[in-house]
Specification:
about 220 residues, alpha/beta, TIM Barrel, 7-stranded parallel beta sheet, two-stranded parallel sheet, 10 helices, about 45% helix, globular
Length: about 220
């Protein structure tokens, strides 16, 4: 039986968060991450630059076209239904937001996509899950650490949580052991200095560290 996208996210655990890269760099980065064992890529919308939203959607589409089933693209920082629609049409398989908007969650599920809204308190997390979220992104996770995930999982063992914010190769294992179903990783993995120098092999090596630490 074919696995669902949610099941594959739960198995692969690490979502790489990518912001504002031109197409050629984006493809090289995705290839490096894939070589390192990371195959979930979140391409984010810049809220203060609507002129870039079409480029974001184009990046999602290109990942789907060039990597087919090897890499699963998603859209991040989705705050508007317009962005959600653009992402869905581009082939995004999951929709991630920094906050919890029940209308976005409902529309995501209507489109047959995986919903990963952001929340912080137990009340917000429960509301997001009841609205239809597949995972709830605990953000910013680094402000409270793995102990907070563990505390949340005690009364809420049925809600899959994603730790996002400040997750690196040193603490990823701690977040997962605390009960996180997965993590989202941005600048600690998708390092601007390595991208600027096109050190793709270094990014692949760093990705392997994350994958190893998550096992």
């Amino acid at each position: 039986m074919e696995k669902s996208i949610a099941e594959m996210i739960g198995e692969r655990k690490i979502i790489a968060i990518v912001r504002g890269l031109p197409p050629e760099q984006l493809m090289k980065l995705v290839n490096a991450l894939y070589e390192g064992g990371i195959s979930l890529i979140e391409v984010t919308f810049a809220q203060n630059a609507p002129q870039t939203w079409q480029d974001t959607a184009a990046g999602i589409r290109r990942i789907g076209e060039e990597f087919a089933d090897r890499v699963i693209p998603g859209a991040g920082t989705v705050l508007r239904e317009e962005q959600l629609q653009m992402a869905a049409e581009a082939g995004a398989k999951y929709i991630i937001s920094p906050g919890m908007d029940e209308a976005i969650i409902r529309r995501t599920k209507e489109l047959g996509l995986v919903s990963i809204p952001g929340a912080f308190t137990a009340t917000e997390i429960v509301r997001a899950y009841h609205a239809g979220a597949d995972f709830v992104k605990v953000f910013p996770a680094d402000s409270v650490g793995p102990a907070y995930i563990k505390a949340l999982k005690a009364p809420l063992p049925h809600i899959p949580l994603m730790a996002v914010g400040g997750v690196d190769e040193k603490n990823i294992g701690d977040f997962l052991k605390a009960g996180a179903a997965g993590v989202g990783v941005g600048g600690c993995l998708v390092r601007k200095d390595l991208i600027a120098r096109e050190r793709w092999s270094d990014i692949a090596a760093l990705a392997r560290e994350y994958v190893s630490a998550a096992e």
